[in-house]
Each structure stands twice: as structure tokens, then as C-alpha cells.
Amino acid sequence: xxxxxxxxxxxxxxxxxxxxxxxxxxxxxxxxxxxxxxxxxxxxxxxxxxxxxxxxxxxxxxxxxxxxxxxxxxxxxxxxxxxxxxxxxxxxxxxxxxxxxxxxxxxxxxxxxxxxxxxxxxxxxxxxxxxxxxxxxxxxxxxxxxxxxxxx
Length: 152
Fold this sequence. Notes:
Number of helices: 5
Number of strands: 5
Radius of gyration: 15 Å
CATH architecture: 3-Layer(aba) Sandwich
Order of helices and strands: EHEEHEHHEH
CATH topology: Rossmann fold
Oligomer: single chain
Helix content: 25-40%
Strand order of the largest sheet: 3-2-1-4-5
Largest sheet: 5 strands, parallel
Shape: globular
Number of domains: 1
CATH class: Alpha Beta
């Protein structure tokens, strides 16, 4: 399977890319390197340095036949999301939609979304939270992550 990992130069994305390569998949990484680091990208995975909102990131789907999108790219700073909710939504919602729309146009069949560890739940009524837990995000970051889940 040929897989595009967004945010693959970050901590989690780079480890996911490593695991997918170990399973024998062809892996490509797209990352704008705003928080990720080039050295974290596995050597066997080509790195395309693009913002996920860009035409360059979208063009990857025309240049390669991806079977799956594994989406880790995000503006993940909750404090920044409060200071600039428009930017947070732009990256975390519009970035995903940019890739989804062009991916669907090019036959993308599978998407794996890395959401959040708890920002969509607010103050927990019980732990661990499961899919039945009420959703009450308390930050723009949590709202954007919840919206991303709903778009899928």
C-alpha cells in the first residue's frame, strides 16, 4: 500500500511512518517543518515540505497514487488556538479538507485521522473517556479536532 503521512516529521507521525515502513508499505511524508524536524523522517520515506493547506500538498495526490492518508499534521498548541482561533481552524480544519477533497478526486479510499487525547471532551464525567462520553470541547483546538472527526 502507498501511504501519505501528514505531519510525518513530528514525534508521533515519524514513529507511525517507521511502523508502516516496517510492515512493508511505501510511505511518503508531507510536513511543513514548523514543529517537525527533517531528521525524524525515516530515510526510506521521501519528505515533501509543504503546508497541508497548500496547492503543493494537494498536488501530491495527482503525482502519486495513494491508497491511504494517515493524518497527523496539526496546529496542536491549545494556547495558540485560544489566541488565534482563525489560524487554528484554518490549519486543523481547512488543511484536512484540502487533502480530503483532492484525495477523493484521485481515488483515495482510506483515511486514518489522529484526533486528540481528550480536548474534545472538556471536563470528564468519567475516565477513561470512551466514544459515548459527552463532547464538550473547551478550546478552539478541541472544536477543530471535533469538527475534523465529523467531516470524516
